[in-house]
Design goal:
Length: 111
């Protein structure tokens, strides 16, 4: 199966659904929830790792980890948490829908 996205008469992409999903900026993004002190320790522990492109802190009890090249980083996050003895409340994996990919590829040019 293939998906073709046409924006204003121009083919923007011709790819499989999985290839399209991997192009979305939030593909495999993780939201890590926990106590503020635990998240501070965790943020220090992951500082400089090559498999995380960006770390943001929307609230005191939440970290959002954007993986490099959309790779799956769940096991690595759990490994560091376990190795360092840092308690995390939950980890949520972001999986965009094809609709999200379509919007991100076509709304950039909306005027």
């Amino acid at each position: 199966n293939r998906v073709i996205i046409i924006d204003r008469g121009v083919v923007k992409v011709d790819a499989t659904p999985q290839e399209l999903l991997k192009k979305h900026p939030r593909f495999n993004e993780l939201t890590v929830n926990g106590e503020e002190d635990s998240l501070k320790s965790f943020e220090t522990a992951i500082q400089g790792v090559e498999w995380i492109q960006k770390v943001s802190r929307p609230t005191k009890r939440k970290l959002v980890l954007s993986p490099t090249k959309g790779q799956n980083i769940q096991a690595k996050v759990l490994g560091i948490s376990s190795e360092k003895g840092i308690a995390l409340d939950s980890i949520e994996l972001a999986r965009p829908r094809l609709e999200d990919v379509f919007r991100s590829m076509t709304q950039k040019n909306a005027a």
